[in-house]
Every structure is written in C-alpha cells, then in structure tokens.
Amino acid sequence: MILIEIKKMRKAGIMSIYVFDSSALIAFFNDEEGADNVEKILLQNSNTPS
C-alpha cells in the first residue's frame, strides 16, 4: 500500500517525503518549541496555496 502511494507521489512530482515523530506532532499541536519548524515543512510541501 505505502509503496503504491510513494510511486504515485513520485509521478506527481513530489520529491520529498517527511515522517514526523510523535514529539514533533505534539509540539506542533500544542504550539511548543519546534512547532514553527514543523509548520514550515507542512506549508512548503502543501498542495494548497497559502
């Protein structure tokens, strides 16, 4: 399943895949230290205009 999704992403021109650990996600949702780094990564790789 995951391999199929990765192949679809590559065909769509997506070059990077990020995997966030739980501490990064918790920091993001609780607006803790490091949340801004997670937000930057999410926004720069978003398919929707900001």
Task: Give keywords.
single chain; elongated; 50 residues; mainly alpha; 56% helix
Write a concise synopsis of the structure shown.
The chain is mainly alpha-helical and 50 residues long. 56% of the residues lie in helices and 0% in strands.
Number of domains: 1
Strand-and-helix sequence, N→C?
Answer: HHH
Strand pairing plus helix content: what structural class? mainly alpha
Tally of DSSP helical segments = 3
Report the principal-axis shape.
elongated
Main β-sheet: number of strands, strand sense, barrel status?
Answer: none
Task: Say how many strands there are.
Answer: 0
Helix content: 55-70%
Strand content: under 5%
* Mean residue pLDDT: 80
Q: How far is the first residue's CA from the last residue's CA?
A: 30 Å
Name the poorly predicted regions.
none
Rg is 13 Å
